[in-house]
Amino acid sequence: MDALGFDYSRLFADISKNANIVAGDAAAMAQALNSAPTTLSLVAKECKAMAMTARQFDLLQGQDSDWGWRPSEFISATDKLGRTISGELSRLADLVGRLARPTTLGTAGDLVIVWNEASLKKHVESLQASRSSLEFLLECVP
Fold first, then answer.
1. Domain boundaries defined on the chain
2. SS3 string of the chain?
3. Each residue's pLDDT tens digit, 17-27
4. The pTM is what?
C-alpha cells in the first residue's frame, strides 16, 4: 500500500486471478465445441496475456513496497486502469459464462449458445488496449 492508501498488490493480484479464470473458462468452452471458435480462443489468449502482465506488475510492486518516486498522476492512472481492466474481465466472464449455463430452453447439461461475437470482440479489444497501457506503466518503473 502506498502513502495514499492504494493497494496495488491486491488489485493486480485479483486481476491476474480473474483473468486466469476467464481464460480457463473460455479455453474450456472452445475445446468443448466441435470447432473451437476463433473468438473464444482470442478471449482465452488475451486473458492469459493480461494475467501475465498483471502478475508482472504485482511482482514488481512486491519487490519494492515503498515506491516513493511515484507521482500522484501515476497512482491515479494505475488505479483507473486497474478498475477498467477489472470491469472488462467481469463483462467477459459474464459473456463466456452464459455460453454454458442451462437456460429455460434446455435442461442442465445441455449446451445452449447465444453467440454475440461482436460483444466479445469489443471487450477483447478494450482489454488489449488496457494491457498495452499497463505494459507502458511497467516500462515507466525505474
1. 8-140
2. CCCCCCCHHHHHHHHHHHHHHHHHHHHHHHHHCCCCCHHHHHHHHHHHHHHHHHHHHHHHHHHCCCCCCCCHHHHHHHHHHHHHHHHHHHHHHHHHHHHHCCCCCCCCCCCCCCCCHHHHHHHHHHHHHHHHHHHHHHHHCC
3. 989 888 888 87
4. 0.62
